[in-house]
Design goal:
It contains 15 helices and twelve strands. The protein has helices spanning 20-31, 43-48, 55-64, 76-85, 108-117, 131-134, 146-151, 165-175, 188-191, 195-204, 219-228, 241-250, 264-271, 294-303, 312-327, and strands spanning 33-38, 51-53, 69-73, 90-92, 122-126, 139-141, 159-162, 180-182, 209-212, 236-238, 255-259, 276-279. Helix 4 links the parallel strand 3 (69-73) and strand 4. The protein binds 1,3-dihydroxyacetonephosphate (13P) and iron/sulfur cluster. 1,3-dihydroxyacetonephosphate (13P) binds next to helix 3.
């Protein structure tokens, strides 16, 4: 059998070539590169990274890192955000085709039309958006700080929140904010984790805690279960992926039902090995996140690809919105 020299690193069947980790580490050292991995990455990628985290934590690390190169193991908008924050650094993503169905759910033209219908409104965009959309945005947010970001906007100002309808509904519910309009976009992975499945699993596991990502279609059902007493309210937690890890470290539950992309289970099990973590939907796997493979990470470091470029004018227009995002909700800082 022949193997492509550029795709060395993994053996057929998915096991890693001996020496893969050493070569990745050595090439990263030679490139002065920091390796960042999102919580939904493959376990091998999470384990080799210098930092694994949620999108807010990784954006902050990218902004503060002293390394001259950032290798972003995540999806394209995350690498683009790192480039917007650090235009002088080289940003690599192991596969530039790793997109995001949520980021694709609004175009910059659609946003401009929406803004024209609501002159004076403050635009809050989830970080899962293209650089062009960020350039038309006042403040970005992630699932970790969306509530704090919207709360920082004076109560009499209209808010346009995009593109995730479930996260938007969560923020509106928490803040009881009527003058907040929410774009009807969704992530195909999280929208597929539905209320019926969550309810059935909660009934079958009456002692389990529920960790639910606010992008999920079932977030409303989770709160409904808490509201009716079907699951005690203190066992229902709506959390970002980083928030889930913090909660796992302090949880006293013996089992937790996890409603988010399945890559999250790896970090949760490492953080709290004594807890039985179960996916609410074990088919909730993001094909874009899983495009970043050990072979492509090695290729990125050997060949310096795929380099991420953001048009400097767009980056300049989006930078203030992204910088406000990384400040708001920062422990000891922000608004
Ligand atoms: P977090 O911000 O919770 O990491 O979620 C981001 C996300 O959904 C990426 O797909
Ligand atoms: Fe985008 Fe959904 Fe994949 Fe996250 S899980 S990268 S929101 S498609």
């Amino acid at each position: 059998m022949t193997t492509s020299p550029t795709l060395a690193g993994a053996r057929p069947g998915g096991t890693l070539e001996p020496g893969w980790a050493d070569e990745v580490r050595e090439l990263a050292r030679r490139r002065d590169a920091v390796l960042l991995a999102h919580n939904y990455q493959l376990p091998e990628i999470q384990d080799i990274a210098d930092h694994t985290g949620d999108s807010l934590a990784l954006s902050r690390i990218a902004a503060e890192s002293q390394a001259s190169t950032i290798v972003f193991c995540g999806v394209h908008f995350m690498a683009e955000t790192a480039k917007i924050l650090s235009p002088g650094k080289t940003v690599l993503i192991p596969d530039a085709a790793a997109g995001c169905s949520l980021a694709d759910s609004i175009t910059v033209d659609q946003l401009r039309e929406w803004k024209a219908e609501h002159p004076g409104a403050v635009v809050v965009s989830y970080v899962n958006t293209t650089a062009a959309v960020k350039a038309e945005t006042d403040i970005c947010c992630t699932s970790s700080n969306a509530v704090e970001v919207v709360a920082s906007i004076p109560a009499d100002r209209e808010v346009l929140f995009l593109p995730d309808q479930f996260l938007g509904a969560h923020v509106r519910r928490v803040l009881s904010r009527e003058n907040m309009h929410v774009w009807a976009g969704e992530c195909h992975v999280h929208a597929g984790i539905n209320g019926a499945t969550l309810t059935a699993q909660a009934e079958a596991n009456p002692d389990a805690e529920l960790f639910v990502h606010p992008e999920c279609g079932c977030a409303t059902s989770a709160l409904y279960l808490a509201g009716t007493g079907a699951v005690p309210a203190e066992r229902v937690k709506i959390l970002s992926t980083g928030g889930m890890l913090d909660a796992a470290r302090t949880s006293r539950a013996s089992s937790v039902l996890v409603a988010t992309e399945v890559g999250m289970l790896h970090q949760l099990r490492r953080a709290a090995p004594e807890i039985d973590f179960r996916a609410v939907n074990d088919r909730a796997s993001c094909r874009y996140m899983k495009m970043i493979t050990p072979e492509k990470l090695l290729r990125a470091l050997r060949e310096g690809r795929d380099e991420v470029h953001v048009d400097p004018e767009l980056a300049a227009r989006g930078r203030a919105a992204v910088q406000r995002m990384i400040e708001i909700g920062r422990p000891g800082g922000g608004e």
